[in-house]
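Why do we care about 3D structure at all? Because function follows from shape, and shape follows, mostly, from sequence. That is the central idea of this module. The next example makes it concrete: a single protein chain, its amino acid sequence, and then its structure expressed as tokens.
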Amino acid sequence: MRKSLIALALAAAMGHATAAEPFQVEDIRVEGLRRIAAGTVFNYLPIQVGDRVDDARIASAIRSLYDTGFFQDIALRRDGDTLVVEVSERPAIARIELHGNDEIGEEDLLKGLKDAGLAQGRTFDRSLLAQVERQLRQQYFALGYYDVRVESTVSPLPRNRVGVRLDITEGEPASVQAIEFVGNQSFDDEALRDQFEMGPVPWWSFFSDADRYSRQRLAGDLERLRSFYQDRGFVNFTITSTQVSISPDRRRIHVTVNLDEGEQFRVGEISLAGDLVFPEETMRELVAVAPDGLYSRQDVVATSEAFREKLGERGYAFANVNPLPEVNEDEGTVDLTFFVDPAERVYVRRINISGNTRTRDDVIRQELRQSEGAWLSTADVEESRRRLGRLGFFDNVNIETPRVPGTGDQVDVDVSVEERLSGSLKAGIGYGTEQGLLLNFGVQQDNVLGSGDRLSFTANNDDVNTVYRASYLDRFYTRSGIDRDMSVAFRDTDADEADLSDYGVKSLTGTYGYRIPVTSNDTFGVDVEIEDLELTLSDEPTEVQTDFVERNGESNMTYRLALSWTHDTRDRAVFPTSGSRQRGSLQVSIPGSDLEYYRASYSHRRFAAISDWLTLALEGSLAYGDGFGSTGRLPFFENYFAGGISTVRGYDGNSLGPRDENDDPLGGNFRALGSAELRFPPPGAEDSGFRISTFVDAGQVWSTPDQDIDAGEIRYAAGLGVIWMSPLGPLTMSVAEPLNDEPGDDTQFFQFSVGTFF
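And the structure:
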């Protein structure tokens, strides 16, 4: 009897039930449904036809139906031997409107609401809405918006539906006004604040958001503080507590960090244990920790990573390297043992290539240093990625090495690429500070029929040069990877338009050669060139021009042998962030030529990532030429020049170096150039083809043996530059100020080369 009363009371609390004598259910009828199907009710109702019910069964049934969340009122009653289930459905959410959410995007916010159970088409629960409001405010608190207000409006709609509107007033984010430290003895507050990305903003930093508080940013800064101490020997450093106080107006944040530095430790003994695979002397060369030096967690991690990379060269791609520190409190030292477990040696089952809709698989495979069936080498995999990136065919190259399911010693190499447009048709008009009016037309396909070959035809016409050139690069002409290059070019140059001496040169040049790979990063080139040249002098030629024509005439046929060497370790062709590119070349006339001379050059460009967004680019080059035999000296129209946007910015194009009797630039046979540049993308455009740079350029040209090479004559300039890798080629602008210009130097503050193509 007592149990029946309890069941009846529970039923009355949860819904409506008619107390009656137990009976056997002959039929079940559901009333009040509008959207929900009767079958749904039957699925959740723990009573079936033929069951005998009493008050306890009824209470249990009501509880089960309430648990579905579909109904706001439930009643069970008896009609003869029929069980009648009367329900009142909760309304459905027809739409959700968001207003005022600028900091959290609508897509992210709707996804969060859906995960919480509030989404279009779902059953509306007012208690859930209140919970969502609280969670939403907490999300804004975590982002530093402590003055946020969230208000909800529920509007009834036809067919038992509602519309939910959330109005969010975000307010202003709280700003960090001060960060203080308690317990620091070895470093002052300023040194510790430098480890924080978050903090008060200087008055002169107009666009910084460093003072914007968030829990995530504070957690990251505290981790950087731990690393700072632990990289300087403070092994037992701890942050005992952190207090974040907010002003009454919820706009200002004050952070106090309480810390315990502990004692400073030095490195004691360094031991290597386990299966080293390589000789111990080889592995010890990779140790970045210095005995008796301050203990540094960063150096310990770097040593472990260097060990793993070294073992990966032998196929131990999943090696475990565990540094085991032993702290000697009395001696103030930390003994280190690096335990090496190479694990299973793995080999490559197959190489899978995806994403290449145009480029043939064999073109990609030719660049891979890792082979199928061979031991996996992490060094070869990384070199393969770099080689594919240097092709210029792909916007992105990704290589992964997943384990083969069911095996412990096999992996697949999955190469996925994102192809870029490799063909172009150009016609355009533009202007350059050095070339004047530019007219051009070009057709180029860098990946002919997916073969990797390059075919191009170019026609350019500006104030200085008229050029027509056709070329074809036959990549992997032989099975050993030798490329073949063929080209023919016509050039008509009016030197006077380039502010040089008044003369003209017309030449027709044919080239045939090969590019021979020597190593993964080194290529040797050999070309044979034939040039038919015609020289035109003005009515008042200079002394140099007259002397040349008297010796060699105005028409010459020259046969040249061109040798080159290229060493390229860049991570990609466009805006590299690491590696270098070196190139040496020698161009020399061969017997049978009307002119006998040579030109030699060497250039070196090196790139280093200073941070995730900042790259240092260093460049230096030397070039020298001279004549021999009957020619005597380097022909004046083969001279080197400096000055302008492509050499030494801040000085007029081709203006540096020797001049003739008319004070026109003459050029010289020896040139030295150098440049240091910091490149970075605009904020929020890290993946774009746009870079801003600060630079220092240096360079000069000399004419030997008439002129001594004096390093004091080198000109310097510094400035700002912009580079945009447009779909039609690089467009550049710079503003530069000469640092040591002399009287008579031609300077130019603003320089650019930009065109509009159509």
